[in-house]
Amino acid sequence: MDEMGMVTCQAEWRGGFEERVLAGYRAAGCSEPLARALLERAVKGIEDWTVATDGTGWIAVGVAQENGALVGRIHDLTAPRGREWAERWCAGQGAERVEVRLTGGAGAEAFADYPVRGQNRMRVAAERPVLPAGLTVRPLTEEEYPGWYAAEEAAYIADIVRAGALTPEQAEEKSDQDFARHLPQGYLTPGHGFYAMEADGRVVGTGWVNHGFLPGVTFGFSLEVHEEHRGKGYGRAAMTVGEWATRHGGDEVMMFNVFGGNEVAMGLYDSTGFAVLDEYRSIDL
């Protein structure tokens, strides 16, 4: 590989990078306002990234503290065989692991040995979602909220650990921070809806969504079928509930995250047409 040179003026690289990211979001079915809102999130902190080139392509890297660990990030990689240089750079900054975000599945071949830690997925919700026969949806009551919260936090920690992204202690710390950020007023946090799914008079699952999360988007933080009721078709039913909640909240697009290691869920989302917006992969150094 030719020698890498640091780039002081990032204008040429940045223009091409932003267009590649936008193209990935458009290909996944995002509207232009949504694609640009996602781009804004993707380039957060871009002024602090380090950009290098070998004359044939680009590398953009950075490091950040995350849950008590220094993490390296490969933000862009178009230089042939540039991954090794990027990993060396991150290691030289003291990073313990390296993460990469792949937009719309682009670049997966270059990071095939990086385990998948999570995905963001989306789909335009059906205009008039029809709930399966025998399934009803009602708001979760304020009395039910504390028990639901405890179960959600435990499940979230378990998902993070199963994905291999963090240790149990780091996962617990991240969970505390995330729930406090998303639900600062708990059950009464504006824009958030909590639901119970019932069949035959029993609660078989719950849902938690955030309306207006992005332009026209309802984010499904959780669409959970209780373990004792799994394998009965309620998983697909929960996705319909998510679409119903999306339209009920005045949005058009449903979006959610799935953790790596959950192949059953990923298979369900593939079969129900939820496109991968971003895929997060990482490897320990």
TrEMBL record:
What lineage does the source organism belong to? Bacteria, Bacillati, Actinomycetota, Actinomycetes, Kitasatosporales
SUPFAM superfamilies in the record: Acyl-CoA N-acyltransferases (Nat) (SSF55729)
Q: Where is the N-acetyltransferase domain?
A: 135-285
- Name of a matching Pfam family: Acetyltransf_1
Record's signal peptide: none
Gene3D superfamilies found in the cross-reference section: 3.40.630.30
> The organism sits in which domain of life?
Bacteria
UniProt-recorded name of the protein:
GNAT family N-acetyltransferase
- Which PROSITE patterns does the record match to this protein? GNAT
